[in-house]
Specification:
Layout (H helix, E strand, L loop, with lengths): L10 H12 L2 H9 L5 H4 L1 H4 L2 H8 L4 H11 L3 H5 L2 H5 L1 H5 L3 H13 L15 H4 L4 H21 L3 E5 L5 H9 L4 E6 L2 H13 L7 E5 L6 H11 L4 E8 L3 H11 L3 E8 L19 H5 L5 H19 L22 H12 L8 H10 L6 H11 L1 H18 L4 E6 L10 E6 L7
Helix pairs in contact: 1-22, 2-21, 6-21, 12-13
The structure holds S-adenosylmethionine (SAM).
Length: 435
C-alpha cells in the first residue's frame, strides 16, 4: 500500500504535482540552491517574495515567525486552539495570500506521517540498555515487522545493510533465534561495536555474522552475500540508510537472486535527478524536531556564520573543504561578530592584516537587520524537508515499480513524534505467502 496525502488517489498525479512543486525556483533556492550560510553572498532574503518579507518585518520577534511557520505544516486542527495563535490573531490574519497558499501546498504535498498500526516486540533490558528512547521505539517496531514479514514469506535470513552498532541485527538475532542475520557496514568501528554488543548479550556468530564492507554496488559484495545465503531466501533491511547506501541497496535488492524482500527506512538521500530536487545543504529532518524551539544562541551563530562567509567572499579568500577545521565555538566567541570572526580566522590561519577589525565591525553593522532574517531562511528550508523526503520516497517507489516487482509499499512505520524520519519502503519480488 502506498499511503498518499488524503486528497490523492493516483500515484502518478501525486508524483507530477510533487515534481512540479519541487522544481519551482523558490523550493530550489531553499533546498540547496542557496545554502543559508551563503545567503548574504547571493541575496537569499532579497530573492524571497517581497510581500512575505514585508509581512515578516512587521513581527516584533522573528522567533514567533519561525514558530508560526513550523506550526503551519503541522496538524491544522491542533493549531487553531493554541494560545499562541489566539495572541497573534491579527498578524496571522494579515498573512499574504501567496504565503498561505505556499504553506498549504507544502502541507498537502507531504506524504502522511501518521504511524501505521503494527506489531511491537518487547525488548528485554539486555538489549535496551545501550539504546536511547528513540532507538528502543524504532527497534521494537522494526524487529516485530521484519519477523512478521519473514514468517509470512517463509524467510529465515536477513541481511542488514549499514547495520551500525547492530541495534537491529543484534536484536533480531537475540529475539528470534531461528533467524540468521548478516550485518554489513563499511565502518570497522561500527562493526566492532556491533560484535561487542552481540557478545555481551550472548548472540553467537552462527546466528549473527558480520562483514566490514562498503555497500558500493560491487559484485564482490553480492558474491559474499550469495555465499552466506547458501541458497536460502533473504530479506534485505536497512534502518536509517543514509547517502548512497540506500541507492545501492535498491540495486542489490533488484539484481540479487537470493534477496526476496526489501524493507528500509531512509535518512537524507539524493532524489533521482529527474525529480529536480536536491538535499545539498538541506537540514536533515532530525532538525525539524530540533527547530521546534528557536533559541537565541543558535540564531546569532547562524547570522555570524553567514556574515563570515560574506566577508571571506568579498575579500577573495577561498577556503577549500580540506582546509576547513573542526572548530568548536566557545561562549566567549559569541560576545560579538569580531570575536567570532577572530576565532574563525585563527582556526583557518587567516592573518588579521587580511581582514581588519574595522572591516569586521563594519560588516556586523551592515548586516544587523539580518539577525532575524537568517533564522527565517533556515526555517523555510527546514519546512521543505517533508516534501523533499516525499520526492525521495516516490523516486524509490517508481524505481521499484519499474522493475516489475510484485509489490511496493511506502508507509510511515514509526511514531513521527519520536522518529521524524519514519517512512519505510517495502518491496517484494515474487508471489507466494501472504504479505
Ligand atoms: C545512520 S547509521 C544507521 C545505523 C543503524 N542501521 C541504525 O539505525 O542504528 C548509517 C550506517 O551506515 C553505514 N554506512 C553508510 N554508508 C555506507 C555504505 N555505503 N556502505 C556501508 N556502510 C555504510 C555507516 O557506517 C553507519 O554505520
Amino acid at each position: 500500500m502506498l499511503v498518499l496525502p488524503s486528497h490523492y488517489t493516483d500515484p502518478k498525479k501525486y508524483t507530477d504535482d510533487l515534481c512540479e512543486f519541487i522544481a519551482t525556483p523558490l523550493i530550489h533556492q531553499l533546498t540547496g540552491g542557496i545554502h543559508v550560510n551563503d545567503s548574504l553572498i547571493y541575496g537569499a532574503w532579497e530573492s524571497l517574495p517581497q510581500d512575505w518579507t514585508r509581512y515578516w518585518s512587521s513581527w516584533t520577534d522573528h522567533r514567533l515567525v519561525q514558530q508560526d511557520l513550523l506550526d503551519s505544516i503541522e496538524d491544522r486542527a491542533k493549531l487553531i486552539t493554541t494560545e499562541y495563535n489566539e495572541n497573534h490573531e491579527e498578524l496571522l490574519q494579515s498573512r499574504p495570500e501567496t504565503l498561505v497558499a505556499w504553506l498549504q501546498k507544502l502541507y498537502s504535498l507531504a506524504l502522511p506521517r501518521i504511524e501505521r498500526e503494527g506489531l511491537l516486540a518487547e525488548l528485554p533490558d539486555a538489549l535496551t540498555r545501550r539504546m536511547k528512547t528513540k532507538k528502543v521505539a524504532e527497534i521494537s517496531k522494526a524487529t516485530a515487522y521484519v519477523h512478521d514479514v519473514c514468517q509470512r514469506k517463509e524467510i529465515t535470513r536477513v541481511v542488514d545493510m549499514g547495520s551500525g552498532q547492530g541495534y537491529l541485527s543484534v536484536s533480531l538475532a537475540y529475539l528470534f533465534p531461528h533467524l540468521k542475520i548478516l550485518a554489513i557496514d563499511g565502518s570497522e568501528s561500527q562493526i566492532a561495536g556491533s560484535q561487542e554488543f552481540a557478545t555481551s548479550v550472548g548472540v553467537p556468530e552462527s546466528r549473527l555474522a558480520h562483514i566490514v564492507h562498503w555497500i558500493d554496488g560491487s559484485s564482490n559484495l553480492a558474491q559474499k552475500i550469495e555465499s552466506w545465503a547458501d541458497g536460502h531466501k533473504c530479506m534485505l533491511v536497512g534502518l536509517h540508510a543514509c547517502g548512497n547506501l540506500s541507492d545501492h541497496m535498491l540495486r542489490y535488492f533488484v539484481s540479487m537472486p537470493c534477496i526476496e524482500t526489501l524493507g528500509r527506512d531512509f535518512e537524507k538521500a539524493r532524489p533521482h535527478p529527474e525529480c529536480h530536487g536536491t538535499d545539498d545543504g538541506l537540514p536533515s529532518p532530525k532538525q525539524l524536531g530540533k527547530a521546534r524551539r528557536p533559541t537565541n544562541g543558535n540564531q546569532r551563530r547562524r547570522l555570524y556564520r553567514a556574515i563570515l562567509e560574506k566577508v571571506l567572499y568579498d575579500k577573495g579568500i577561498t577556503i577549500t573543504a580540506e582546509q576547513r577545521p573542526a572548530w568548536g565555538i566557545r561562549k566567549s566567541d559569541m560576545i560579538d561578530f569580531t570575536h567570532f570572526a577572530h576565532r574563525a580566522m585563527e582556526c583557518l590561519g587567516i592573518n588579521r592584516t587580511e581582514i581588519t577589525t574595522e572591516d569586521l565591525k563594519e560588516y556586523e553593522e551592515r548586516y544587523r537587520d539580518y539577525e532575524g532574517r537568517i533564522p527565517i531562511l533556515w526555517t523555510l528550508s527546514i519546512l521543505c524537508c517533508k516534501v523533499v523526503e516525499s520526492v525521495i520516497a516516490m523516486d524509490r517507489y517508481w524505481y521499484l515499480e519499474e522493475q516489475g516487482l510484485e509489490k511496493v509499499e511506502v508507509f510511515p512505520i514509526f511514531d513521527s513524534k519520536v522518529s521524524p524520519r519514519n517512512l519505510i519502503v517495502v518491496a517484494q519480488k515474487n508471489k507466494g505467502g501472504s504479505w
